[in-house]
Design a protein that fits this description.
The protein is 33% helix and 34% strand. It is α+β, with helices and mostly antiparallel strands.
Amino acid sequence: MKELELKVEGMVCGGCEKRVVNALSDLQGVSEVVASYQNGTVLVKMTEEVDVEVLKEKIEDLGFEVK
């Protein structure tokens, strides 16, 4: 299983985390998403390769910034 950790700015609460988790969990190949607003990170676990640009676009569509 592949893992990718993204640095994300703009998440300020558990609700922000939930929005990111819900958006990324819908993508094919994504098996688990763990978002932490305290750490400013999103950990994406994948069963198959998912384009990082697709992940970034989904997060940025929610109004957060991927570093």
